Amino acid sequence: MAFAGKLRTRRKATPGSNSTSKPVASKTNVVCYPRTVQEQEYAKKQRERMLEYKVGALDNSGNTISRIYSRGDDFLIYEIADQKESESFRVLVDTQLEEDPNGYVRQYEKIKPELGEFRSILYKGVYDKSIKHRAAAAVSTAIRGDIDTARQIFQKINKQVHEEYESISSGRMRYVGAAFVLVCIFILVSFILYVCRAGSWILHIPLVKNFLYAATFSSVGGFVSICMNLREIEFERALSSWKYSVYGAQRILLAAFFGVIAYLLIASDVLLSFLTKSPNSYLAIMAICVISGFSEKLIPNALRRLESKED
To answer: Residue 33: in which H helix or E strand, if any?
Structure first.
């Protein structure tokens, strides 16, 4: 904002005022617009620059714009792709008048501490997608001059994010805890069956024993999957604490069910029949059970392929 140029100001008319009176500079309700040829040329280039910023285009740092939250004549609030959550929220202030008589840059600087704090909590991965829209509204409000309202919006956002993060963290622990307890039960029962495998009562139920072994190995695979993908698992908001435990147990039971199906398909030579001819066929089948529990899509996809072959 280097060159100097005259700026014409206009006070908004009030009831009873003479609309033809000479313009008077005022500290409030001042409208500044390009007057000189230089200012008009600069404003024209600025409008062309702002029009170039759209979804899929590159910003002035070479990042791809993935979403635009708010746009004004002198600013743009947007999100960039392929960046960490805390670095994806961006603000661009490009004023139509190089000297920025409306103080948009100065007003944006005032809200930067709150914006920095907001960016610092985005790593918590809150699932309410409206949070960024509300933050964009706060920044645009600040740029237009209402700093106090913008700060209040940011305070409410930060409070909500912290509360939601604590709730989700507690829910995740309940989710993992329920899954872990159920896996331990499967392992304990299978261990008892293995220790007592020579008993006459077990010899009479070989199929049930094999089913339980398959369910145990697949439940272990399901628990490994939970631990590896815990941060990517999205939970519904405002869930009761016991529901997290139910979802954790449900995931393990589903994995165990897929393990039993995998054992049936292999043992009946419907799928991967070559494993039954392997010297260590039992271990190979249990390994497939672990994989079927780890991947929720393995068994459903296999069943779909079998169905398509029959058609």
So the answer is: strand 30-33
Structural domains of the chain, count: 2
- Looking at residue 278, its amino acid is S
Residue 66 · residue 79 · CB < 8 Å:
yes
Residue 26, in any domain of the structure? no
| Structural domain boundaries enclosing 283 | 169-310
pLDDT higher at 25 or 286: 286
C-alpha–C-alpha distance, residues 121 and 116, integer Å: 9
Q: Please indicate, yes or no, whether residues 176 and 223 belong to a single structural domain of this protein.
A: yes
Judgement on whether residues 301 and 184 belong to the same structural domain of the protein:
yes
- Residue 213 to residues 189, 200, 262, 292: CA-CA distances in angstroms? 9, 18, 12, 13
Residue 197 in contact with residue 227, Cβ under 8 Å?
no
In this structure, is residue 77 part of a structural domain? Answer: yes
Report residue 288 as tokens: 């497939």
- pTM higher than 0.85: no
Closest CA to 26 of 8, 39, 40: 8
The model's pLDDT over 121-131, given as tens digits with 9 standing for 90+, comes to 877 665 566 88
CA distance linking residue 308 with residue 298, whole number of Å: 16
Helices (H), 12-76: 37-52
